[in-house]
Write a structure and sequence with these properties.
The complex is a heterodimer of chains A (386) and B (94).
Chain A lengths: L3 E6 L5 E2 L3 E6 L5 H10 L4 E4 L8 H16 L3 E8 L2 H10 L7 E5 L7 H19 L5 E4 L4 E7 L3 H20 L3 E4 L9 H6 L4 H20 L11 H5 L5 H8 L8 E6 L8 E6 L4 H10 L4 E6 L6 E2 L4 E5 L2 H6 L6 E2 L1 H4 L5 H16 L5 H4 L3 E2 L10
Helix pairs in contact in A: 1-4, 2-10, 5-9, 5-13
Chain B lengths: L7 E3 L6 E4 L8 E6 L2 E6 L9 E3 L8 E4 L2 E6 L8 E2 L4 E2 L4
Parallel strand pairs in B: 1-3
Antiparallel strand pairs in B: 1-2, 2-5, 3-4, 5-8, 6-7, 7-9
Classes of the chains: A alpha/beta (386), B mainly beta (94).
């Protein structure tokens, strides 16, 4: 199988599958203007952190790490940081120096808090950055440079039977080539954690799996939540999933068969190659943003009955094995594998097709999610604001 | 490539439930794929796409097995060929 694609080599040795200007508003006050700047600048990616001064403690650390993670993602060629005040902007900019990509900072302070002035300066700076990064050309690169986020959403039993095992095959192959892969959605390890623990690289990793699952389970319990109706959600139940154990067993099929290297936190980068578990929320936007801020360049996203959401920085290859979804969602599903579910095609043939599609998309072909702009990034929170 | 068509699948021979791959009518004779083998099976209920049904009588309190793993337990006796879902099984973890 082909083990290379056409990507953008970055100065720090990482490889992007896209080469975008990221316009990131890091304070809530600057969000609306920053969005307008991005609307004007074709092909730029916009990320909005709607919070600011009231964020303290763990949330402050998480949000700063995520901002830095999004900006460091190898798909981002240059960054325009928009901040209300200089100290926060200066801090973020200083953290990005080692990524050695062009970074510009603009603050509302230097515009006397005039949004129109900010818009004008932002457009000029952003336009110049796009021109600068557009000089870069794709080169042949190895899959060892690729990190992939594995997601499932609005799942049904076809996800667990076909689409997720297919992702597991892709993850195994990518790891054979020296790449890395991440699955998140901790609550969907519940009932399948014994299988993940068997694959843990060390006893410490085994303990981390138990800790993460118990944490999410106790969190639900402490809030008086019955998982039935929440996870599996009503759509999962309608589609045929009856219990969290059933959903989890289907979910972890995404992780393939390799050793679990470590359990990492939301947005944290894997230290080496191999398979990682991200201790993180399940809902797709928050889960996917954990992957893109952890440096994944691409996300594979299986769905049962359809899910129009995609990641913004790491394009999502959306696919399904549900025969009805495959008929209905022609401009949502990048790949259809209902034939495997119906027994008309072997899973290995489907795996080769999906691998080829992944090479194509990593080399520049756009996903439906990119073409339709059905994507965004969100920030995960654990606490309240001051 | 499979020469014959089938209507439902059983992933692991330890399983006591099957999963439909199309809408299946109550009281119909279906073809069930268990690992690589195909067998005839009589359904009692309508089974929607991707829903589960019992392969044998499952008594109240007995574990429900899919993928060769426990996915919950029966809350009532479930006759062979009946729809298996939240009305007659529950999670042991959630």
């Amino acid at each position: 199988m082909k083990n290379s694609f056409w990507g953008y080599k970055r100065k720090n040795g990482l490889v992007g599958i896209r080469n975008k200007l990221l316009i990131i508003s890091i304070t809530g006050l600057t969000g609306p203007t920053a969005r307008k700047i991005s609307d004007y600048l074709k092909g730029s990616l916009f990320v909005d952190n709607p919070y600011g001064g009231g964020i303290i403690g763990e949330d402050k650390k998480r949000q700063n790490n995520a901002i830095i993670g999004f900006a460091e993602n190898p798909n981002v060629g240059a960054v325009l940081i928009i901040s209300a005040d200089p100290p926060k902007g200066d801090f973020i900019k200083s953290q990005l120096v080692k990524s050695s990509k062009p970074i510009e900072l603009l603050t509302l302070d230097e515009c006397n808090h005039d949004a129109i002035k900010l818009l004008e300066l932002g457009l000029r700076k952003g336009a110049k950055l796009i021109r600068e990064i557009s000089r870069l050309r794709r080169e042949k690169v190895s899959f060892s440079k690729l990190s992939i986020g594995l997601e499932c959403g609005r799942s049904d039993p076809s996800s667990g039977l076909v689409a997720n095992p297919l992702m597991g095959l892709i993850a195994d192959k990518l790891i054979d080539f020296g790449g890395s892969a991440i699955i998140g959605e901790t609550i969907e390890w519940l009932g399948a954690e014994h299988l993940l623990k068997k694959r843990a690289q060390t006893d410490e990793v085994k303990k981390k799996v138990s800790y993460a699952v118990d944490f999410q389970k106790n969190f639900a319990k402490s809030k008086g939540i019955d998982l039935l109706g929440n996870n599996p959600g009503h759509q999962n139940i309608k589609a045929g999933l009856s219990t969290i154990e059933e959903k989890s067993l289907g979910n972890i099929a995404k992780s393939g068969s390799k050793k679990i290297q470590n359990v990492i936190d939301w947005g944290e980068k894997p230290k080496k190659n191999g398979m990682y578990l991200m201790h993180a929320p399940s809902y797709a936007p928050e889960s996917l943003s954990g992957f893109s801020s952890a440096g994944c360049q691409i996300t594979l996203f299986s769905t049962g009955v359809g899910n129009s959401f995609n990641n913004h920085i790491a394009p999502s290859i959306k696919f399904s094995a549900n025969p009805e979804a495959c008929k209905l969602l022609s401009e949502q599903l990048d790949y259809k594998c209902a034939d495997v579910f119906l027994g008309k095609k072997e899973i290995n043939d489907s795996f080769e097709e999906l691998w080829s599609l992944m090479i194509e998309i990593c080399s520049g072909t756009e996903t439906w999610g990119e073409i339709l702009n059905e994507s965004s990034e969100v920030f995960s929170r654990v606490d309240r604001s001051l | 490539m499979n020469a014959k068509n089938f209507d439902a699948i059983v992933l692991n021979k330890k399983d006591n439930v099957g999963t439909s791959i199309k809408f299946l009518k109550a009281k119909s004779n279906i073809i069930l794929k268990i690992e690589k083998k195909l067998i005839n099976f009589l359904l009692k209920d309508n089974i929607r796409l991707c829903h589960k049904f019992s392969l044998n009588l499952i008594k109240k309190g007995e574990k429900i097995i899919k993928y060769g793993e426990i996915i919950g337990e029966a809350t009532i006796n479930i006759d062979k060929g009946k729809h298996v879902h939240i009305h007659n099984i529950k999670s042991l973890r959630g």
